């Protein structure tokens, strides 16, 4: 009887805890520990999606079905990974749910016909670090499954195949040891599977097909240690092989761990391992060849060499006699330059090759070379001008006798003109003025960048231009417009003439080439006089400053400008709209007059954006534009645009703590707390539905006078904001005046908070309400329609006429819920007590 009572107590407590957890506890993924003596399947059945079941070391005789998206992971708690013993019955594990994870388990003894260590009927699963042995089949990826991953597992000593792919596709099988099975892997109509970096070494065949479809058996070579210790990851290792060919029967001449030929795995040639793995025995890399110096200077020597053809080569180690430190040169560079050496001195370089295992070449290759003597660099010899023209001078020279000589720098008035490399012995100085003397300065530089401190200079003069360049003739105004003047002329008859320079107000404004004889000045103002001056210039840049002038007047303008276009309200807020537009192209556009909402704006003709402030929310505005030119002409057809301000979505709350604080036989005084809202401006007051005006923000009290003795009065309050928007919820409070003298009557009040009434259906009667507006609103019908026949106040209603759940409603519901659970707990305890008795 005691055990029965205990069981009932536990059951009752469990029911209570489950009910409480259903209400109060969130659902989340858990980690569940399973130890020997417990059932893995029971824990899977009780698990939820996302849970991890951690199986401790031990032997579990079960046939497990994974039908949830969980992680089933073995944990070595002292005696190795846990063993799932199929007990010669069904498969050790059958995975039926997508995205399951199976790791670190040993699956044995599912040895009955057509049983598996692991059978998957799901997609997107991961099987990692599993040992599968002594089963009929090792692992099977079942029909129609796809996108599973099998990695880092040992599959051996199974009666049939280690792996069976049964009409399954797009799986990845990598870094697994599949050995000592009858077959390594059997593929029955499987396709698009990626199988690489595995060891196959089985009793009959490593790979077998029933219905051949294309699969991929290697990846692009990756310099990374493969599963048998070689330096390159690519294909698979085949111990038993296919058709008598194994990894070891194929050659690896360059000892890179990859067979020199491909291995065809099926008769149809749909399954080919193009890069089978070969056993690899690390060898020292070969040394470099043809080490030699290719250049030497007084302070530097440069060597080159040829690297061995070794994909596992990592870097070149340089031992240089002129340095105490060693230097590593990455493969592929194949040269080394030693700088800051002493002139006329021998230096020796020694080179080792080093592979990725850190093995050095057995031979260090040496080369000894000597820097050149350091000659004293001299300047140029016989620098002289050999010819000249009106605008150019040509210099020549002889170079210094110095093997280190590199180049010469040419200067004029301390500005670098050019750098002339060794072998070029001439320089042509151009862009000069006629009849002008010029000097150049030269400085020689050697191959080490050392400058000769002695300058070599020379002077020469350009030829004199004896021809006087003429001016333009017949300069006159051809025609005028409102905004432009056209001039024409005749060029001077002179072969050296190049162009005409046009100036206005002593500023150059244009250059007109020979033969054009026309110039238009545009962008002018109407009815204004403009003068231009002309001078001529020749091919030598010599300007004839005998200016020829001409004056023109633009036409008087009586044509108004075009209007603006593409008026857009680019952005808006509750109290503003920002506008953009495109101005007309009239060059004399001066300004734009803009009007919106009774306000006028004037912007200059180069402005195309305006932000209009101080608007009312949720209101459509029309904006007008009138363009004006510099002559005062106005476009008589205004252009219009429309825009709407955003709604004021901020819900203005009602007053708080509305209560009666005092009364007489003819007056009642109420006070309250204003809403904490920066847009709040005033409160509309109603007494028994009759408007009593408004109370400004901050006053927080109102006294109703002229009342009858011993009479109930209901105050209604509506808050409004600075946009004139009225809060739809009325806050009410009811109080009674005192009885007339010699009578006693208690004061009644509904208390702080008041009663809330819906005001949405009277919104149309109040279009605008400012802080000083005293517009009366008929309140009688509102109060009557909202006063129920009973004395109980009506609940506020939502837009669909359903009661609105307030914060008080939720608090009451929560208290009720706690009360129910308390009663339930008392009942359970009472039942237990009665049973014990």
From TrEMBL:
**Which PANTHER family does the annotation name?**
FIBRONECTIN TYPE-III DOMAIN-CONTAINING PROTEIN, TENASCIN
Q: Which CDD domains match?
A: FN3
| Annotated protein name in UniProt | Fibronectin type-III domain-containing protein
Q: What is the lineage of its organism?
A: Archaea, Methanobacteriati, Methanobacteriota, Stenosarchaea group, Methanomicrobia
What are the protein's UniProt keywords? Membrane, Repeat, Transmembrane, Transmembrane helix
Annotated region Disordered: the residues are 783-803
Q: Where is the composition biased (Low complexity)?
A: 784-799
Name all Fibronectin type-III domain ranges.
284-374
What stretches pass through the bilayer? Answer: 812-835
Fetch the Pfam families from UniProt: fn3, NosD
